[in-house]
Amino acid sequence: VGAGTVLTADQAQASIDVGADFLVTPGTPAVLAEALAKAPIPAVPGAATPSEFIALMALGFRVCKLFPSNAVGGLAMVKGLAGPFPDLKLCANGGINEASAGDYLAEANVVCVGGSWMLPKAWLAAGDWDKVRYSAAKAVQIAAGARGAG
User: How far apart are CA 22 and CA 5, in angstroms?
Assistant: First the structure.
């Protein structure tokens, strides 16, 4: 079980203290990046620009969260980062949906995507677990299909 939307070094440490297996951030200021680099568990730091990715790679990160993916160029950004950063793998998040997830996953530099389309707040509030199960199963099919094509 991981901790997401980690915003500070204190939140990272608190997540580690309660047993998180990994950490994910939407963005990564220098103080947080240094804490994540020293963390005893894996971390996926978030970034949105080539300069941010260079800084994170200098700390040893090779898997980063591209956030907010669609707002910073979507698939064009993913493809654009592949050339200068052949060793960087991305977890694309932000504006990903059922229709676009497979396109992102088909890119060699994308290892995973995240999205809330599988868990609309209304379904959760209503306890409509059948819809959640169906949507999650469909997401698994999308991922399997994209990986089978790539």
Answer: 12
CA distances from 134 to 48, 120, 123, 124, 131 (A): 32, 13, 12, 13, 5
DSSP string, 123-149: HHHHT-HHHHHHHHHHHHHHHHHHHHH
- Residues 14-72: pLDDT tens digits? 999 999 999 999 999 999 999 999 999 999 999 999 999 999 999 999 999 999 999 99
Cα gap 147→26, rounded to integer Å: 25
- Cα–Cα dist 30/100, whole Å: 31
**HSE-CB of 130 using CA atoms within 13 angstroms:** 0
What's the rounded mean pLDDT across residues 142-150?
A: 74
- H/E/C letters for each residue in 64-105? EEECCCHHHCHHHHHHHHHCCCCCCEEEEECCCCHHHHHHHH
In the block, tokens 């200021």 appear at 29
pLDDT in tens, 82-118: 999 999 999 999 999 999 999 999 999 999 999 888 8
